[in-house]
Amino acid sequence: MTARILVVDDIPANVKLLEARLLAEYFDVLTAPDGHTALDICDRTQVDLILLDIMMPGIDGFEVCERLKANPRTAHIPVVMVTALDQPSDRVRGLKAGADDFLTKPVNDLQLISRVKSLVRLKNVSDELRLRAETAHSIGLQDLGRYDTLTEPGNVLIVDGRASSQERIARALKPVAQVTGISDPQAALFEAAENPFDLVIVNSNFPDYDPLRLCSQLRSLERTRFIPILLVIEQGQDDMVVRALELGVTDYIVRPVDPNELLARSLTQIRRKHFNDRLRASVQHTIELAVTDPLTGLHNRRYLDSHLKLLADRAAARGKPLSLFITDIDRFKSVNDTYGHDAGDEVLREFAHRVRSAVRGADLACRFGGEEFVVVMPDTTAEVAAVVAERLRLSVETKPFALPGDAPSLSITASLGIASFNLAEDTPEAVLKRADTALYQAKRNGRNQVVAIAA
To answer: Which residue numbers are catalytic?
Structure first.
């Protein structure tokens, strides 16, 4: 793993020490002697993580962190404050300013490298999601919102072997989250898999159970893979911290737990989870838009082109029939010419609705282009496809299409062409062409009919 790390400290010896440790792990290192220089570097250059001193001339580390998090271009850069300040109040102030973690001078090499690698991994995932989601945002499809907003309470699962500490943690989180407490780690695993938690807090106080086992299982399950994990440890358990970060634990806090620090760290994780959930939803929505016709809501030609080959290969492997038909609205141009394109769009939407109603759940309905639609029918012979096509034709012919405004309802008909796959030698393109030929034969024969062409 490589990344670009910015070290910000006004004492050259501290900078050289951190730089040497990071270079030994093959990180690319930039340095800055003060806060203003650091902000300038972040504004001009890609930075993956910042190691930030607090006590500096000019503006201190707290203000630098606040400015970084307020700038949309730099808000997602992880910040680790490296400081001689070790009071809980200082950590809370830093976390409220947006810091992701603290390292106390003199810095433990193992914790430094483990923490840097863990935060870089998290940033890489978030960056990939943001890049894809911003594609949708740039064309007006999604509003990503702010990273630091929390519009609803979080949902937190506490896994703690002691009722007393479980209660203290729940009390600290009560202002910002709904809390569920469980003492049995295996029961907690099932609970996390079945419910939409924003954070799992695992206390390492079990007398006969390794808490990292639960952390590993949470990271292994698909349903819990992206839930942040906050580990509560004893002072001096450095080896456990390193192993935990390698397993994908997101953050840790040392006992005795300061309620304000716990609240600040939990809020940071809940906000990050909500934001990444929005990013993933945006990516999924973008994918759906790429393969969906916006007017009718059916799959589009792009989806048909990619999916038809998969259906044909699956049918061939299973030795099952596969048929399709192309349908076209008869004399559709006259609808646009007479009543306008708004009326034409309404006819297309209603036609798509009748296509959905006429075909089966396993069938694939797509808008092929213009007023043409394709329905692909797995496990279907040409004879059964003809029955489905005739059902659609009748549903179009027998019920007039309502138009917007005061325009009269229209009687519409459709022509349909059917073709089936010869699975031994056919290609999707060849079958579509035969169906298209059958469609135009139906048109030449007088429209409003179904025609099938044998393979």
So the answer is: 371
